[in-house]
């Protein structure tokens, strides 16, 4: 929906362009913006976070409970949907703001709790300090409720890309504008030439947030210089790295920020057409983008002759069809053209010859979402955050075995440890943390003793890791690093497009070597000691060869998970090799299970659950595991409530 | 009209809309066909190739390159088990294994009664609620192997997902 601000503009008789009016000096717009920013509210406001994480945790039912109560008249409040605040661990999140007070956040809200909240908070007019997570800084403090700036999850964060998310309805264009979306576009179109816009981005030092870290301004300058009848802007929203979900969250929570970035890019390089290449696995992001594009068109932010400047720009969405390699820019372009998504050698670079052979700028979602902020706040403000070589912030998707998972946007230069221990709150399981996987299948496993390393493109490269797109998966003592390496090779083997031999065959060979290490049974020629020993010697050489000779960035970085685990966790490889044992107890085929006859009461749970029918025994009598049948899955040990299953 | 005849007509319409030479519409068209039928029948590959003016091999190449496209009919419900990194370290391999055994299928297959198809996906992008599973269009977080089997049982008893 275009929302309240747009309605007021129409009521006022459409004076001038909508954006110029909304950000201009007029009381009508200013008052509406204050209302939309909730600086002055008359009725309590309820915001339910309905991003994918929220929905998966039951936010739809919570929203329905509030809406029904409001419709029935039991509560007197406006109910809204909101994007994702990034505090995924505590979903479903509900923010409640009472007149005259700050927004207060409640976590893990269930539909059953809604009547109680309606009673005490909405009807009673008092926040439940024991239940509340934190309060935002848009009202006077409340006793017993931490400010957002004091909350351990938010304190170390510095939010630019995520500065707006989670506090307004992403389907509402007016609410997005009230939080400064499109201010940068207005400023550029009215006060900057395309060349000055390129120069602004160049001066900011913004580097590609998709993983490579190539300077965005340079990319734009190259494309702006080209002469062509058509140019294209492509936003890469094919977030294929397992472990990364920043882009999804931005698109679901603040789609207009990404659209603004694309429009600014179009203006800067002289392109009139934009494509968003979004994965089909993100249905909600696609739906919200469609709404946002339609609203922006209606409001004259996209379309012909925007703001009377002669600049025209429109955006189409292309749904990806599930191929990791399409994250590589030349493969992505092939996919938009309807071909198999296979990379091609560069040069020519897409900035010279890209989509349909025309100059094309490809930036990922997070890079695009930075653009509007940089233009409206200036490159100096951006450079003031982060490190000289990597200015600005980076959004990380924190997941794995840590206490507080979610999205963390931090200034560059902060250490990995501060993110994992500080924002993430350390181990969830109580087991010691041992590594963090950064950068997905192209990245590395960084051991605890290197967690002082700063998050910075060049620092990370120095330790053999890479920034990647921002997935941080935390691993504890219960994670086997050989298994993790094998997992990534499984992935890259499946996703290798097959065009170049080093990647197609090399990833296969590496996976085979790791399979020999992590399995026990089978053909002795395959799994024999000699094959294992020679395999491990070969592994590093194959990895180096693939790194040097693969065609595209994805192939060249595919050996990184192997090389980093070999370098930092060699002991685990050796335990698999010499002792035929998995120290973390993950590699199931290396484990042996037995039932302790003293402890077994014959309940039969394990027998019922055993997928291989490897457990025999009569009810109330001791059960036994038939070793030849056992596949080592561990179901019996997990389910036994008498600790009768021993693992060795 | 017979429902199959109706969808056959719809498919003919979808393919007929594609102008000759627009190779860039191959993927969106295959996506529309799959959204309608749940899979890409062989004949569609030939018809679309003729409509666009390319070879069936080129269209078949596209249809088999991308993970999204299925060349066989799926079951009534599709269970997608996320095999991303975060889900992997939280035990998604066992979840996939258990549900496959419980339903008597291998990953990518459909149960004999046509009720379920089990698929693994590279990453659902819901790592903070790992392990994650998607049944049809709905996401489930913090899934356990046993919980997923119970969920599937509830669906096959006629309950809602």
Structural account:
The complex is a heterodimer of chains A (648) and B (161). Chain A has 648 residues and is α/β, with parallel strands linked by helices. Helix content of chain A is 40%, strand content 14%. Chain A has 27 helices and 19 strands. In chain A, a hairpin with a 5-residue loop joins strand 11 and strand 12 (406-411). In chain A, helix 8 packs across helix 15, helix 11 (246-253) packs parallel to helix 13 (283-298) and helix 12 (255-269) packs across helix 15. The mean pLDDT of chain B is 91. With 161 residues, chain B is α+β, with helices and mostly antiparallel strands. Chain B contains seven helices and four strands. Helix content of chain B is 47%, strand content 11%. In chain B, helix 1 packs antiparallel against helix 2 and helix 6 packs parallel to helix 7. Chains A and B meet through helix 4, strand 11, strand 15 and helix 19 of A and helix 2, helix 4, helix 5 and helix 6 of B.
The strand order across the widest sheet of chain B is 2-1-3-4
Count the strands of chain A?
A: 19
What is the spatial order of strands in the main beta sheet of chain A? 2-1-3-4-5
Task: Quote the distance from N terminus to C terminus of chain A.
Answer: 60 Å
Rg measurement of chain B, Å:
18 Å
Report the strand count of chain B.
4
Number of helices of chain A: 27
Write the layout of secondary structure elements.
The complex is a heterodimer of chains A (648) and B (161).
Chain A lengths: L2 H9 L6 H6 L3 H10 L8 E5 L2 H5 L2 H14 L5 E5 L11 E4 L5 E4 L7 H10 L8 E4 L37 H6 L4 H9 L2 H11 L11 H10 L6 E6 L8 H8 L1 H15 L3 E6 L4 H16 L4 E4 L4 E9 L9 H8 L23 E5 H13 L1 H5 L9 E8 L5 E6 L4 H8 L9 E6 L5 E4 L9 H6 L8 E6 L4 H15 L5 H18 L5 H4 L1 H21 L3 H5 L2 H9 L1 H10 L13 E3 L9 H5 L5 E2 L7 E2 L9 H5 L5 E3 L1
Parallel strand pairs in A: 1-2, 6-7, 6-10, 7-9, 11-15
Antiparallel strand pairs in A: 1-3, 3-4, 4-5, 8-9, 11-12, 13-14, 13-15, 16-19, 17-18
Helix pairs in contact in A: 1-3, 8-12, 8-15, 9-10, 9-12, 11-12, 11-13, 12-15, 19-20, 19-24, 20-22, 22-24
Chain B lengths: L2 H14 L9 H12 L4 H11 L3 H10 L11 E6 L2 H5 L2 H12 L12 E6 L11 E3 L2 E3 L4 H12 L5
Parallel strand pairs in B: 1-2
Antiparallel strand pairs in B: 1-3, 3-4
């Amino acid at each position: 929906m275009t929302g309240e601000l747009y309605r007021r503009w129409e009521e006022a008789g459409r004076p001038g362009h909508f954006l110029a009016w909304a950000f201009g000096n007029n009381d009508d717009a200013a008052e509406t913006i204050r209302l939309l920013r909730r600086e002055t509210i008359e009725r309590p406001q309820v915001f339910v976070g309905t991003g994918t994480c929220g929905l998966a945790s039951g936010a739809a039912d919570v929203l329905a409970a509030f809406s029904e109560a409001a419709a029935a008249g039991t509560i007197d409040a406006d109910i809204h949907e909101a994007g994702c605040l990034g505090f995924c661990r505590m979903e479903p999140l509900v923010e409640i703001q009472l007149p005259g007070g700050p927004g207060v956040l409640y976590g893990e809200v269930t539909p059953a709790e809604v009547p109680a909240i309606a009673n005490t908070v909405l009807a009673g007019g008092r926040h439940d300090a024991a239940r509340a997570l934190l309060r935002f800084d848009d009202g006077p403090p409340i006793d017993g409720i931490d400010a957002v700036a004091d909350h351990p999850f938010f304190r170390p964060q510095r939010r630019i890309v995520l500065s707006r998310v989670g506090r307004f309805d992403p389907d509402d264009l007016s609410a997005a504008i009230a939080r400064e979306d499109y201010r940068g576009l207005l400023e550029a179109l009215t006060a900057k030439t395309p060349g000055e816009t390129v120069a602004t981005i160049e001066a900011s030092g913004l580097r590609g947030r998709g993983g490579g870290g190539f300077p965005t301004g340079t990319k734009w300058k190259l494309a702006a210089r080209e002469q062509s009848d058509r140019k294209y802007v492509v936003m890469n929203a094919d977030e294929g790295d397992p472990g990364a979900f920043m882009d999804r969250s931005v698109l679901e929570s603040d789609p207009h920020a990404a659209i603004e970035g694309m429009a600014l890019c179009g203006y800067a390089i002289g392109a009139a057409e934009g494509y968003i290449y979004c994965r089909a696995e993100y249905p909600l992001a696609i739906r919200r983008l469609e709404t946002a594009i339609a609203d922006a068109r209606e409001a004259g932010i996209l379309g012909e002759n925007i703001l009377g400047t002669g600049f025209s720009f429109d955006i189409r969405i292309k749904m990806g069809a599930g191929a990791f390699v399409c994250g590589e820019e030349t493969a992505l372009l092939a996919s938009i053209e309807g071909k198999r998504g296979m990379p091609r050698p560069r040069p020519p670079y897409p900035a010279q010859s890209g989509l349909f052979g025309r100059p094309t700028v490809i930036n990922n979602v997070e890079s695009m979402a930075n653009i509007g902020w940089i233009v409206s706040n200036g490159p100096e403000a951006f450079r003031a955050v982060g490190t000289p070589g990597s200015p600005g912030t980076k959004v990380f998707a924190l997941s794995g075995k840590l206490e507080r998972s979610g999205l963390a946007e931090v200034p560059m230069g902060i250490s990995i440890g501060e993110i994992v221990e500080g924002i993430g709150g350390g181990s969830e399981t109580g087991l010691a943390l041992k590594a963090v996987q950064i950068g997905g299948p192209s990245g590395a496993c960084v051991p605890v003793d290197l967690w002082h390393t700063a998050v910075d493109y060049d620092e990370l490269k120095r330790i053999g890791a890479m920034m990647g797109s921002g997935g941080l998966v935390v691993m504890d003592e219960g994670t086997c690093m050989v298994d993790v390496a094998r997992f990534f090779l499984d992935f890259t083997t499946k996703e290798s497009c097959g065009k170049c031999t080093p990647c197609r065959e090399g990833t296969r060979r590496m996976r085979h070597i790791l399979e020999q290490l992590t399995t026990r049974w089978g053909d002795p020629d395959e799994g024999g000691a000699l094959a294992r020993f020679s395999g491990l010697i070969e592994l590093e050489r194959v990895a180096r060869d693939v790194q040097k000779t693969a065609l595209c960035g994805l192939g060249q970085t595919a050996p990184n998970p192997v090389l980093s685990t070999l370098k930092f966790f060699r002991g685990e490889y050796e335990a698999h090799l010499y002792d035929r044992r998995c120290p973390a107890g993950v590699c199931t085929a290396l484990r042996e299970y037995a039932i302790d006859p003293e402890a077994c009461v014959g309940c039969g749970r394990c027998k019922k659950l055993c997928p291989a029918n490897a457990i025999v025994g009569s009810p109330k009598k001791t059960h036994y595991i038939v070793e030849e049948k056992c596949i080592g899955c561990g179901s019996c040990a997990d389910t036994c409530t008498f600790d009768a299953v021993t693992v060795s | 009209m017979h429902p199959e005849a109706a969808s056959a007509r719809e498919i003919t319409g979808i393919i007929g809309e594609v102008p000759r030479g627009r190779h860039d519409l191959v993927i969106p068209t295959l996506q529309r066909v799959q959204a309608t039928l749940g899979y890409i029948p062989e004949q569609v590959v030939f018809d679309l190739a003729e409509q666009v003016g390319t070879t069936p091999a080129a269209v078949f190449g596209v249809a088999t390159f991308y993970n999204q496209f299925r060349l066989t009919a799926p079951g009534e419900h599709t269970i997608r088990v996320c095999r991303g990194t975060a889900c992997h370290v939280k035990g998604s391999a066992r979840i996939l294994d258990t549900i496959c055994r419980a339903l008597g299928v291998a990953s990518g297959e459909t149960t004999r009664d046509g009720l379920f198809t089990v698929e693994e996906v590279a990453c659902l992008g819901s790592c903070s609620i790992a392990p994650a599973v998607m049944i049809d269009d709905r996401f489930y977080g913090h899934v356990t192997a046993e919980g997923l089997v119970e969920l599937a049982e509830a669906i096959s008893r006629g309950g809602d997902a």
